[in-house]
Amino acid sequence: MVLLLAGQLAVPLRERNAMLLAAGFAPVYGERSLSDAELTAARKAIEIVLSGHEPYPALAIDRHWNLIAANRAAGPLIASAAAELLEPPVNVLRLSLHPKGIAPLIANLAEWRAHILERLERQVAATADRLLAELLAELSGYPVVEGAGSRHEIGDVLIPLRLASPVGELSFLSTTMVFGTPMDVTLSELAIESFFPADEVTGERLRSLAAIA
Predict the structure, then answer these.
(1) CA triple 62-66-72, angle to 5 deg
(2) What count of Cα atoms within 13 Å lies in the side-chain half-sphere of residue 25?
(3) Domain limits at 69?
(4) Which H or E run contains 47?
(5) What is the pTM for the complete model shown?
(6) Looking at the 3D structure of the chain, how many domains does it have?
(7) Are 78 and 93 part of one and the same domain?
(8) Radius of gyration over every alpha carbon of the chain, rounded to an integer in angstroms
């Protein structure tokens, strides 16, 4: 009955295990390391998606937004960040909004920051995760870089990420991919963030950047 109710309510696997424990039952969903042999196929799938997305950037993250893997296209875009922010585990939200990260390169930082904080707030509300709550408090306290503006207008389809690069400003749209039928907690909490050119100029500049790298 616990599993039936959790399934109908789309409760995440980690919380389903907690519900089972609270009801006096053993957890039924495993939580393997991504390096576990049983997750080999999943690791290969992640590698295929990341490499196949080049020359556009893509990265895999865990539930706390720590970087699991990234393709080669992502490297040049974060190379200017302070060394301490690139030490594992790299938190991609901290890297994005920290004044010593890539925040100074984001042309529309105010609206991108608002988007990230709103997304993180929803996560905290849904999971009550202590580490996510601490991350939200940290990010909320970062100063907004002077002049961090906004260009989107009412009626725009999406808010792009506008990022300075060695080949000029890049404009991205992003999508999130998750495993469709996970039965392992680790896989259920892993996501792949893929960034696509929002215009033809960005596509050309990314191909140029890939050629330089």
Answers:
(1) 100
(2) 12
(3) 36-108+158-212
(4) helix 40-52
(5) 0.87
(6) 2
(7) yes
(8) 19
CA dihedral in degrees (145, 151, 154, 157; nearest 10)? -100
Written as one letter, the residue type at 15 is E
Beta-sheet strands, E only, within the chain: 58-61, 67-70, 161-163, 170-178, 191-197
Could you give the CA distance from residue 109 to residue 13 in angstroms, rounded to a whole number? 34
Sign of the C-alpha dihedral computed for residues 155, 160, 164 and 166 taken in this order: negative
Residue 53's alpha-carbon distances to 12, 73, 176, in angstroms, are 28, 9, 13
Residues 61 and 16 in one domain: no
What whole-number distance in Å separates Cα of residue 89 and Cα of residue 59? 14
Q: Are residues 13 and 68 in the same domain?
A: no
Residues 102 and 167 in one domain: yes
164-213 confidence digits (pLDDT tens): 998 999 999 999 999 999 999 999 999 999 999 999 999 999 998 888 76
